[in-house]
User: Fold this.
Amino acid sequence: MRTQARGLACAVADHVVEKVILSRPPWRSLPSGRLILRGLEPGGDKVAPPWPDLIVSCGRRSGLVAREARRRAKGAPLLAHVQDPRTGAADFDLVVAMDHDHVEGSNVLRVATALHDVTPARLAAAAEAWRERLALLGRPLIGVIVGGPAGRAPFGVEEASTLIERVKAMIMACGGVAAIVPSRRTPQEALALFAAAAARDSSFWVWRREGDNPYLGVLALADRLVVTGDSVSMVSEALATPHPVEVFAPRLRRRHAGFVGTLEKRGLIRLCDGQWTAPEPRPVVDATAEAAAALRQLIAGRR
Assistant:
C-alpha cells in the first residue's frame, strides 16, 4: 500500500513527505475519523500542521486519517485515495480503484493494474546498473519474479518445483537462461530449491537475497518475464515494462485469480505453462501514469 500511495504522490509532486501511521485499539476499528488521531501510536509519524496541499492515502485507516486532516485544515488539502476506502468515496476528490474494488462514483477512476513507483526513469537507471552483470548470463533472458504464500494460497516446495520445471522447458525451447529473483516473502525451502537448480544447471541463476537486489535490473533487461500471481503489485510492475509477461498461477486467492483472469482476457498476459511462444504485442500498462494525469487535472482546477 505504501508503494501505491508513494508512486502516485511522486508522480504529481516535486516534494513528497511520506507519513507512516500506526493506530491502536479501539481507535483502529472506529468507523469515523473524528477521534482517530488520538489513537495514533507514538512510534509512527505525527499528523499535524502545517497541512499539505495534497494528501494521497491507501488503506481504510489511512483514508480516515486523511479525512480528519482535511477537516482540521478546514478543507484545504486535496484528497486522493488508492483502493476502496470502505468509508465512502464521496469524501475524496479522487479514488483510484481496480476492477475488484467495490466502489462507485463520479470521482472514481478505474485502472487495470495496481499503482507503483516503477517509473521509466528508475527502469533506465537499473538497466544501466545491471547491464554488464546480467549480460554475463546470456540471452534470451527469462526474468522469474517470485513471491510467496498469500492467505490460503500456498507457495512452497511443490509450487517452486513446478515453476522450475516450466521455466526449464522454456529454456530448452529458446536456448536461453533464467534469472530468478525471490522476494522477502519467498519461503526459505523454496529458495533452497531454486539454489539447488542453479547449482546443477548453469542456465539458472538465482539471487540468494544477498548483496544488491537485481529486481529492477531484471524487470528492465529481461526478454521475457515470468511472475508468480500471488502479488498484484509484482504483476503490475512487470506490465509497466515492454516485455512479454507470463503469470505462474497454480493456486490463487479469489481476488488474485480474478485479477489474473481479467488480464489474460485482455491479452496483457499469458499463463505460464512451460511453452515458449512468440510474444504478442501489447501496450505498456502504467496505471500510475493514468491516475497521475487525472490527479493533475484536479490540481489544475484548484488553481
